[in-house]
């Protein structure tokens, strides 16, 4: 714990950061603050912790540098008054990545405004990075283009996505960032029904994302009219692979946010095998494009709450319901959603069945997935398939409450659950290899620890308490807040840093975010169910 004297120094540093009017001034303020802390005998690790705790730092860094890591780097190299701060550059980058969604795993790309026009070339170089031999253009849109290329190291065909450079700095920055986001997301996914990441590089100061080449066509080309719609057997077969892919990405804390027929490719091998593509608008923790930019799919595939920037994994569940309806009927889901996006009730089953004699059970699945209230939809993608094929989950027979987080399902047999970040002490005292989620029972308490490399989740972030037949949630004074999805809106549960909130009564099905930012949205989403049997249709 920091002494009162150190806490006062950090408090003053925070105020000086708040007053900074340029990135150079801000970095010099940090330089002096760090020097003062070092003079008090603090180790580098303690100073790093102090920097992470200054809540105004991320917003000031983002505002003064226009969210550009390269500007910070330039300032560090240019100003001779800044020396010690070079040892803490990684912390500044981490804070920008954590709080502002600025990418760090892929190289940062900066293009001065006067040079945008010079980069307006129609094709990449004939031999990118000496490895990828460009063949032809296979796709182009407002955001970028996709080129077919040959990997001369493996002789395999690949697809290379590059951003479109228009000369408009705002549009071009967005196009560039979409490629960077997609690269980071795909690098963290490995599933047979998700397009595979191969490589990422920067050439001519433009990011290039290399992915596996998919020989096929998207669903909207496959199903052009209602006559092209699939039968129920084909639909269920295709949906099983699609839902499995979405369930997997949700287990990795990825929300696609743009699932639609055009982003589902059917491979040309007569097996109805599919690949999910286009992760440029996906959300991975707080890695994403700027909040609210361009995440809308015509036809009713975008969940209503997502149009208000209140997205969650349930937003993808809505999209799956729309895709299921489209595969069966060849019609977009907006045809059964009068008044969309201002809908307040799910589609009527008879309206669903009027376009085709759809099985009653499948119609119920579509209705549940397209419920305007996210909490009434399927809590997990996999539960859609269980209802489609009539499979009963053994869990539905139990009355024990349950928490679902990342790829873990944890039954609750105690009256108090504490959720927080996995610390180095816990890692060192563990007798086995550490999973992403670790649980411990101590008396009547269940502790759930999450291995959060960004340290955005607090060590003791939130608690769930059972009182008689009800469950309550309390934020434990976390740094980055807690939120509960309620009626399609995220409700922040937080009082103050290091001061616990009041108890908040949970519904029988609750979607909770550990960490929430009004601009960046939820950080890590978990699901709590006090009445498991309510999952089914």
TrEMBL record:
Keyword Membrane included in the entry's annotation: no
Pfam families per UniProt: FHA, Pkinase
Domain Protein kinase: start-end pairs: 132-389
Molecular function as annotated in GO: ATP binding; protein serine/threonine kinase activity
InterPro entries named in the record: FHA_dom, Kinase-like_dom_sf, Prot_kinase_dom, Protein_kinase_ATP_BS, Ser/Thr_kinase_AS, SMAD_FHA_dom_sf
EC number(s) on file: 2.7.11.1
Reactions listed under catalytic activity: L-threonyl-[protein] + ATP = O-phospho-L-threonyl-[protein] + ADP + H(+); L-seryl-[protein] + ATP = O-phospho-L-seryl-[protein] + ADP + H(+)
Top-rank lineage group of the source organism: Archaea
Keywords of this entry: ATP-binding, Kinase, Nucleotide-binding, Serine/threonine-protein kinase, Transferase
A cellular component term, taken from the record's GO annotations: cytoplasm
Alphabetical list of SMART domains matching this protein: S_TKc
Residue ranges annotated for the FHA domain, each copy included: 417-484
Keyword Signal: no
Residues spanning the membrane: none
Name of the featured protein: non-specific serine/threonine protein kinase
Organism: Ignisphaera aggregans
């Amino acid at each position: 714990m920091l002494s009162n004297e150190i806490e006062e120094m950090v408090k003053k540093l925070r105020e000086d950061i708040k007053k900074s009017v340029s990135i150079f001034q801000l970095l010099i303020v940090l330089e002096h603050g760090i020097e003062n802390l070092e003079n008090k005998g603090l180790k580098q690790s303690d100073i790093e912790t102090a920097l992470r705790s200054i809540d105004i730092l991320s917003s000031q860094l983002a505002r003064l540098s226009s969210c550009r890591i390269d500007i910070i780097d330039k300032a560090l190299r240019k100003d001779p008054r800044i020396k010690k701060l070079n040892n803490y550059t990684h912390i500044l980058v981490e804070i920008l990545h954590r709080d502002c969604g600025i990418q760090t795993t892929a190289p940062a790309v900066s293009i001065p405004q006067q040079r945008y026009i010079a980069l307006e070339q129609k094709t990449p170089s004939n031999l990118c990075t000496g490895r990828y031999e460009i063949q032809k253009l296979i796709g182009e849109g407002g955001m970028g283009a996709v080129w077919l290329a040959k990997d001369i190291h493996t002789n395999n065909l690949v697809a290379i996505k590059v951003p479109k450079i228009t000369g408009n700095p705002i549009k071009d920055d967005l196009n560039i960032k979409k490629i960077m986001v997609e690269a980071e997301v795909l690098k963290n996914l490995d599933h047979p029904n998700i397009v595979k990441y191969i490589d990422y590089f920067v050439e001519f100061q433009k990011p290039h994302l290399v992915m596996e080449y998919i020989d096929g066509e998207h669903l909207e080309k496959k199903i052009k009219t209602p006559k092209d719609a699939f039968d129920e057997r084909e639909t269920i077969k295709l949906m099983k692979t699609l839902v499995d892919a979405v369930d997997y990405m949700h287990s990795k804390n990825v929300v696609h946010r743009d699932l639609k027929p055009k982003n589902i490719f059917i491979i040309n091998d007569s097996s109805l095998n599919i690949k999910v593509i286009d992760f440029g608008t996906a959300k991975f923790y707080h890695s994403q494009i700027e909040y609210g930019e361009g995440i809308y799919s015509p036809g009713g595939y975008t969940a209503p709450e997502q149009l208000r920037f209140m997205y969650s994994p349930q937003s993808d569940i809505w999209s799956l319901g729309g895709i299921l309806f489209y595969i069966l009927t060849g019609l977009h889901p907006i045809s059964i959603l009068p008044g969309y996006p201002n809908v307040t009730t799910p589609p009527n089953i008879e309206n669903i069945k009027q376009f085709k004699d759809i099985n009653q059970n499948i119609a119920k699945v579509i209705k549940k997935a397209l419920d305007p209230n996210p909490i009434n939809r399927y809590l997990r993608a996999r539960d859609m398939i269980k209802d489609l094929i009539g499979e009963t989950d053994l869990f539905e027979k139990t009355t024990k409450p349950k928490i679902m987080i990342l790829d873990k399902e944890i039954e609750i047999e105690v009256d108090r659950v504490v959720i927080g970040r996995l610390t180095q002490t816990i890692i060192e005292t563990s007798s086995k290899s550490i999973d992403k989620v670790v649980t411990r029972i101590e008396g009547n308490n269940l502790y759930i620890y999450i291995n959060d490399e960004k340290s955005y989740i607090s060590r003791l972030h939130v608690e769930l308490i059972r009182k008689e037949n009800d469950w309550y949630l309390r934020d434990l004074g976390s740094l980055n807040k807690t939120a509960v999805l309620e009626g399609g809106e995220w409700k922040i549960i937080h009082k103050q840093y290091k001061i616990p909130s009041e108890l908040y009564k949970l519904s029988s099905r609750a979607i909770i975010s550990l960490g929430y930012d009004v601009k960046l949205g939820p950080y890590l989403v978990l699901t709590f169910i006090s009445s498991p049997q309510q999952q089914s249709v």
